[in-house]
Amino acid sequence: MQLQDCSKDTVFEQDQFSLLLSCFCHQQFQQKMQFDSIKTCSKRTVKWKGKDLFDLVCRTLGLRETWFFGLQYTIKDTVAWLKMDKKVLDHDVPTEEPVTFHFLAKFYPENAEEELVQEITQHLFFLQVKKQILDEKIYCPPEASVLLASYAVQAKYGDYDPNVHKRGFLAQEELLPKRVINLYQMTPEMWEERITAWYAEHRGRARDEAEMEYLKIAQDLEMYGVNYFAIRNKKGTELLLGVDALGLHIYDPDNRLTPKISFPWNEIRNISYSDKEFTIKPLDKKIDVFKFNSSKLRVNKLILQLCIGNHDLFMRRRKADSLEVQQMKAQAREEKARKQMERQRLAREKKMREEAERTRDELERRLMQLKEEATMANEALMRSEETADLLAEKAQITEEEAKLLAQKAAEAEQEMQRIKATAIRTEEEKRLMEQKVLEAEMLALKMAEESERRAKEADQLKQDLQEARESERRAKQKLLEITSKSSYTSMNSSTTALPTDLPSFNLINESLSFDFKDTDMKRLSMEIEKEKVEYMEKSKHLQEQLNELKTEIEALKLKERETALDILHNENASRGNSKHNTIKKVSEGSTLLFSQLGLGAHP
Question: Which Pfam families match (predicted)?
Fold first, then answer.
């Protein structure tokens, strides 16, 4: 026979029977070992028993707490478990290929934290319970579903880091039952926000611690670890039988949360079946024997297997631990202490690394800041040098302009002096000309007077000449030559005006500005109760958190989408009923209820 485990590539050979075992896939969150193909190469009987195959799987996984697990298969729509003392091929396994066996938890602990020692055991239970909750085989109220999802995220992703776990990082994760998602008018982003809020509070929890917290919450769910079977009482009434770590429970088919009757294992004397009839004999012989019928003989066999296994574990828990278990617990404590020290060391190293990184980041930031300041100062210096050069050039130009202006001013001053001198000379000449004009006017006046006088004289002379001619005529002989000459002088005077033009000079000064910015049976029963009370006290804070979330999302609930289990759970919660106090109450009233349900028979 050849058997191969794909997870470790281990090959075993025996006879001519070949058996292939597929991978154990943690990433898919499935706890199963699947045999891909069974091929019979000869008709000889294979000697391998169920225990041989089971031990092979356990060795492959490194699992020592084997009493919780088994190999499950399905035959004619009925679940069956591989018997350890029976040959594999003697089982009523399907003949078609491939035959699939699921490596699953067959029995559940009462207290996961105290009973599950190995980390691999805790991890397998975590994967199985998580899958049952998501597949709605275990009813979980919405607020508890969000809390469990946050622990699942912590187990997978480690501590919350807002820089790494950004919005949408849970988009592809299956964390909540579809029933819960459909019950509220909430988007995936709103669910992610509430899961992340609790996820951030789990900082510092390792994967095994987060998975154990998940199991501690899940083990208080009413349907946790219960195997349900359809039965009928002697009247033919359909009921459900529940088998779990605490005992046997009778349910109404429509209410799998609250049992009508419960039988703790310490109150049961004998369990047996004959064909389809199943018989429960209580420890108190005064109480009637209870009988019911199942649908198939195979179902009765399965019920008996589960009853024997759970009863043995129930009694085993109330005895001193075996040497093997003591060794395992000691090793687990040592391993836990080692891991704790390792986590503390890693935490210190992480803290030191974070501080070093913060210091480095601060130094890098400071260095960058200094570089920027140096660059800015260098640029400012360059601008200052350019400005200084520009100012020096402008100062030189201004100086030259000033010299030029001074020269021009000097020239202008000389010109003004020359003009002033010219003006002075012109004034003197003007006065002189005025004087000359005045003199000329006076002369002209005199000449006019003289001319008038002379004209008078001329007239007189003419008159005398006329008289002389008359005398000449009279005296024809007497010649009087009188010769007279008259000269007339006319003078022209002109005036000149000298215009004066004074130049003006304007000097414009320029200025420059520059701007720079800058985380015993009764006794035993009493002990169990005491442990439960202590656990409930520890869970008070957790319950307050759950109630707070429930109140927060209640306004978004769609009442029309509530299932029967939702309604039953709300009724139990309003009455203050929990899994453990309900079982205690129904155990106290079992006799009366059995007669009412038609399950009682005289011994």
Answer: ERM_C, ERM_helical, FERM_C, FERM_M, FERM_N
